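Backbone-to-sequence.
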């Protein structure tokens, strides 16, 4: 196979496994895997020690005619047969699930082999402890059988874990030097180039239907790539406030949660140095569109907003930033002079936070009375006044643009609140 074709094949297999693990495996398979693991545990741990204790019990033998039928019953019931049926049935079920999902090593490790390995190890240790404590070192047929079965299960499941873990590592292991990738191709795969490529495509797509030629001129080129934690972000635009970013996908991370609330769109998957990235775009939303959503502000929302604002201003003062060090596309103004601050949401696994969409918008909402400040209670007004970095009256009068804090400076706290570790120097 051609090295480049093998490279694409490895990437597609790894991505297929992640997507299948998130979207295509039904809940029934997960439920059956847990049931089979429990039945296996019950088969070789619970029943044999119980029947061994009953066989050695002196209570039943000392109760005379009443205890004899019970003891006779337990001696006749083939309890090892029942335990064997449970073990064999669960093993057959697990083998069936393995055959059905044999191409998805992530799911097999998480739902089959690792649980079985843990249960078998616990069973092995429990049986040894039971023999040398409760039975004074006496090895019965049931104890020997339990030890043999649990030891075999430990070896088998442990071997399977190692094999599938190595298989997963091979899928993730990509060595560019062995694939004969040219320097130009390697440069094209850098995250910065990927972001620039997607930004160019999106700009072209968005302006093909635009009738205003001068609007295209108002968009700036991608000026910088901001590095923040696990994300690479490319911000562009002056009136639309779009943003494209790369989010690294960890093993088992749910790709279906990348798109939420029509705020983030998944543009595609990308591999760089063995790490899968998701290329996403924040959909353009104006402040008016977001604020038009009927939503009652709660104290926890405003507390989060005030904290972000305060952290952003502290970051400005600590680093001595000026307007010359900030991208001019971060803030726009309407014809009425209302500041439009770029909104960058936070990718939160499990869904969006209620207060995320309100973070950089609180000043605009209070100034324009969108949230109905005239109907706020005295307690709410007092809360805002004491938790914000300014008074409510100053916020309503839009005085946050005074006292040396320009509109471009104010935009920094939006980036800082989202990316946490961005370097704007």
């Amino acid at each position: 196979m051609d090295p480049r074709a093998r490279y694409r094949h490895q990437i597609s297999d790894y991505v297929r496994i992640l997507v299948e693990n998130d979207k295509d495996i039904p809940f029934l398979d997960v439920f059956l895997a847990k049931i089979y693991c429990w039945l296996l545990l019950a088969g070789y741990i619970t029943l044999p020690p119980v029947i061994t204790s009953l066989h050695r019990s002196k209570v039943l033998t000392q109760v005379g005619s009443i205890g004899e039928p019970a003891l006779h019953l337990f001696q006749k019931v083939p309890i090892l047969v029942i335990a064997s049926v449970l073990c064999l049935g669960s093993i057959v079920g697990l083998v069936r699930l393995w055959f059905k999902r044999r191409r998805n090593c992530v799911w097999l490790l998480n739902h089959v082999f690792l649980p079985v390995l843990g249960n078998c190890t616990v069973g092995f240790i429990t049986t040894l402890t039971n023999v040398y404590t409760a039975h004074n070192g006496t090895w019965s047929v049931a104890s020997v059988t339990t030890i043999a079965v649990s030891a075999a299960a430990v070896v088998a499941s442990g071997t399977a874990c190692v094999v599938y873990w190595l298989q997963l590592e091979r899928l993730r292991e990509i060595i560019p030097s062995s694939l004969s990738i040219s320097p130009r191709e390697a440069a094209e795969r850098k995250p910065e180039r990927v972001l620039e490529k997607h930004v160019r495509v999106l700009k072209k797509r968005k302006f093909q239907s635009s009738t205003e030629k001068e609007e295209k001129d108002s968009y700036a080129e991608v000026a910088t790539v901001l590095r923040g934690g696990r994300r690479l972000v490319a911000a562009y635009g002056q009136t639309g406030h779009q943003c494209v970013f790369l989010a690294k996908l960890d093993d088992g991370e749910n790709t279906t949660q990348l798109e939420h609330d029509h705020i983030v769109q998944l543009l595609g998957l990308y591999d760089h140095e063995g790490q899968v990235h998701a290329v996403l775009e924040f959909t353009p939303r104006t402040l008016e569109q977001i604020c038009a959503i009927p939503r009652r502000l709660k104290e926890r929302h405003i507390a989060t907003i005030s904290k972000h604002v305060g952290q952003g201003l502290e970051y400005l003062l600590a680093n001595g930033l000026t307007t010359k060090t900030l991208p001019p596309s971060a803030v726009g103004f309407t014809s009425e002079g209302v500041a439009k601050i770029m909104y960058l949401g936070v990718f939160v696994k499990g869904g969006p936070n209620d207060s995320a969409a309100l973070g950089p918008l609180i000043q605009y909402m209070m100034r324009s009375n969108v949230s109905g400040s005239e109907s706020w209670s005295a307690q709410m007004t007092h809360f805002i006044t004491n938790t914000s970095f300014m008074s409510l009256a100053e916020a309503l009068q839009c005085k946050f643009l005074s006292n040396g804090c320009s509109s471009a400076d104010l935009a920094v706290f939006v980036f800082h609140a989202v990316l946490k570790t961005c370097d704007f120097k």
